[in-house]
Amino acid sequence: MRVAVIGAGPSGLVTLKYLLAAEHTLGTPAVEARLFESEDGLVSSKQLTSFSDFRVNNNNDESDFLSTKRYVQYLNDYCTHFKLWPHINLCNVVTSLKTKTRDHHNSSSGGGDGIYHHVLTYLSKDSGEHHTWECDAVAICSGLHVEPSIPRLEGIGRVPLALHSSQFKSRAQFGVGKTVLVLGSGETSSDVAFLAVTAPTRRVVVCHRDGFHLAPKTNPNPELIFSRRRKVAKKPQVPIDVSRASLFDTAYVHPWLRNSFVLWRYYDLYLRWILWVSWGTTHGCDQWIGGKPEGWTASENALLTAHSLTHSLNLVFFNKAGHKVSPYMSAAWRPKAPRMLLARLRALMVVSYDAGDIGGRRIDVAPWPEHIDEDGVVHFRDNGRPEYLAMKDQKIKPDVVVFCTGYKQTLPFLRHRQQQHGSTAADDAEDYNYSYKESSNPTSSSSLSFLDVISGGTANGLVRNIWPPSDPTLAFIGFVRPNLGAIPPLAELQAMLWVSRLLISSSASSSSSSSSSSLPLKKLHPSDEPHYRLTSRKGARIRYGVDHESYAYQLALDMGAAPGLGDVLRIASSSGGGGELGDPDSDYKGEKPQQIFWRRLCRVIRDFEWRLPLTWALGANFNTKFRLCGPWKWDGAREVMLGELWETVARREVFFGHFTLSILPILIFGPLSLFVFLVASLSDLACRLVGIQTQEERRRASGDKLGVFDRGMAQSTLNGYAP
């Protein structure tokens, strides 16, 4: 089989790695894989950002968070370690990707039935020549950050310097004594605003559309006045994206509870509570202005799904860079003394937060601008909020405007088919069984936007946000946005799922294959997708958001790689991570059965690695957890779980870590999930007694069979995507 990978970012590299490793791991025929990258080089917290079987060096002096330079070095080391360089073609721009029907008998491999065949055309920057490469499957890993998204702003030409964040390189671009206007309220906006306020600028203003949430970088750990004086910690609190326990959060959760969003409600309440205890505000990390409006979830419900009333976290992308700018934003809004009685009581119990010395500097927060007049003065929208009242009469004349407004997701190499063959976008969609939508930006007529597809339901979207239902040979790896966490680990799980299904199904259906893999393929069903999707407003730019923990666990379930309690206990009891309990019978020759039993029991207790089940239960859904078993089982996973990942779990504080984010949710949702399971079982029994179909039978009749538990959570048996 020949497979092309487009893009040499983290998603492309990890996809290439699993394609090359499949022969040894899955027992499938060897894959001829090529990666095409237009640039001349490779382009979150390290526990989540690093891949499952190649960890960041655990130096004691290294932070939990990697710099850009350090991460690029990590990716280069990854390519060297797994010998990917010979398969990477740099300075090759993919200009066209076509699909055509080929003869079943002449198919060398491919998507199982020999229907799909891809022709990739690329331009070599070195020679200036076009080349073609035919392949059986294509993984598009070009990423979400492709074409800058610049909204229309009347009068922007009256500003001396306007640029997109992708064009911003250093503080020097701000100049000296200038007024900087930053449009956007995401992580990039926070980074740019921080650089601006710490540069010799005159004024910095950040504009938002409808509020934002500044999240803490690490799990909050407020200090109570009556508690003992804390020792200086060797390491800071754990990153917030690895703070959740997985047991009864994703593992062993009944589908009714999983789909009810009760878990979202708990974390929503917890977040508001911990923010208030830590900083006295529920808007965000020391955030006293610009937060989401009161009742914002309910007010937007007309544009959202019905369950939005019960939670709000699944509507929020956490701005983990916000901790840098919150002291500057809140300087003018933070109350000097508590006003309400409850706030005064809190002040008596919690040590006051120290925002540090900001040198009298501050960042102004303003609504989104309506236009810039002839004099270059910005006029803001009236959103009825305090920041508008504070800014409406001020004369803001920016010298520099930075658009931190994200990117549009485009596939310019697919448009080439239309230009060459005169087909329409609808024709291309029919060829790829994929719904295209013309870009709304008239200046981008040469590219296609696929936002509706990667964010839509299964009727016109992608199976598990990866491949079109009718064409498993075309994959989109890394086209998701986690609310908390990082894209690279999700891209790794996507690659693992797609590669295993592609190669195993192809190997099983190919009569010429001499080494067909015996690994089973689970059937996938759309009903297992809504629970991990983030809700978005109609017309929102980002509609491909997922909950990191839920999505990662679902992909692991689909692969049969989510370890259950029995798997973890077996691995923890064996010295090598995969052996049987106890010792060989030859070690007990001549001994009585009772003696053998007690000796084996003592050996099991002595060798039992209790850290492994604790890391499995209390830790987040690290990718390494899903390498303990399943098709991509890795012998080193056990040691990583017992070492680096156990240290991450053990580093949590007792009350504001283990208790609030592990023990308490387990105590609440464990019994609740058991209760729901009993109710569902009794409901099925009652249906059988009165002679009506049970929910399971109705699902089976409609082609949507759902087993209750499979390796730890409700798992579909997956025949929903069959034509």
Automatic annotation (TrEMBL):
A Pfam entry, by short name: FMO-like
Keywords from the named record: FAD, Flavoprotein, Membrane, Monooxygenase, NADP, Oxidoreductase, Transmembrane, Transmembrane helix
Name this polypeptide is given: Putative dimethylaniline monooxygenase protein
Transmembrane segments: 655-680
Presence of keyword Phosphoprotein: no
Disordered as annotated region, ranges: 509-535
InterPro entries referenced in this protein's UniProt entry, alphabetically: FAD/NAD-bd_sf, Flavin_mOase, Flavin_mOase-like, FMO-like
Family listed: Belongs to the FMO family.
